[in-house]
Amino acid sequence: MKIPFSYLFSYWIFAWFVFYCVAKDFSKTIKTHLNPTIALYFALIENLVMLLIITIKNPKIYIIVYFIITIFLFKIVPLWYLRNDAPNIPNDFLVLIALFIFYNLYLYSQNTNIIKVYKQTASSIIHERNETPAFALGVGEVGNLRYRGTYGIGEPTV
Known about the structure:
Number of strands: 0
Distance between the termini: 26 Å
Number of domains: 1
Number of helices: 8
Radius of gyration: 18 Å
Largest sheet: none
Helix content: over 70%
Structural class: mainly alpha
């Protein structure tokens, strides 16, 4: 089963980042009270833990490289972009908690929960099922290189 974008909290945080970037110039309140930097740091830490788990359980280079690329695009680039916007730590942390509660209520309304989603996400990546949105878009194509030869060089591996 494919995992919808809306089931992954990382995409909620990325959507928060996009909203913040679009709206911060129009509202001082948004700029001072809705900075997603802290959320992006938490998401980056979670992704690095997931990268460690993936590296241990399925150390295939193309999976690891693609996961690093998604971390770079969805966490590192936004953090770099926000480098000059000072977060309001207590307030931004409360916004993160509120968003996380709303996210969990949404999952509950969809008859799932964060533990099921996390397990399915990890299993999907480790077992190369490409059920997560980012991996479904990219790893399928990158992974097909193994069927064309040794990453384009030499004899086919299948």
